[in-house]
Write a structure and sequence with these properties.
Blueprint: H1 16-28, H2 32-42, H3 47-50, H4 55-70, E1 78-83, E2 86-92, H5 101-110, H6 117-124, E3 125-132, E4 135-138, H7 156-192, H8 201-220
Antiparallel strand pairs: 1-2, 2-3, 3-4
Length: 231
Amino acid sequence: MKTELQVPASLSEIPLYKYQEFAKIAKDSTGEFVDRKMVSIFCDVPMNVVAKIKKYSLDDVVSHLAGLFSKDNEMIREFTLKSGKASVDFGFIPDLEDITLDEYADLDSYINEWEDMHKAMAVCYRPITTKIKDKYLVSEYNGSDEFKDLMKHTPMDVVLSARLFFWNLANELVKSTRLSLVEEMEQEAIKKSSNSLRTGDGTLAFTLSLKEIFSDLKKSDGLEFPKPSLI
């Protein structure tokens, strides 16, 4: 019997809750089982149906799905979700400089865990209340509980674009902190070595100090937001 699969053509066709289901399984499993579950979850077919698919066809579908997740997504600031018979337009936080302490604390708690990603999306995106051309305002943040269930249906292209945005932002902050720290240390080293510049001792100490700084900052790169990946 021929098996028909509805394979997603883009990440916009894969809702967050399906990826969360897959990520939970992939975290503790390996090999062909993960490939079968990937096809089962993203193509909406039972595992017994997946078992009847020819090996080369399964490999093609897995390769296609993996390819969708390997691409970087441009930032998606607005999208629409259906809630019952109504549709809700959501917008990304217009100005991160105005983010509240509650928003920051919740986002920091949720953004790195896939099982909590729907809550993170409820912080990042909220219903648009006013819109003029490409400018808009969103509703006030009242905690992630208000829209967390609806956000499970957020398309994965939206989710990954937001996550990549924060990963890039974290990268920029690390670079900015690195440059600022090096400049401060440079000024401090110059002050401390001003009396020994004639002998060259201060220059040597300053060079060694910079090497230690760069070494420590390289190690600290692991503290950045993890870059989005398939699992």
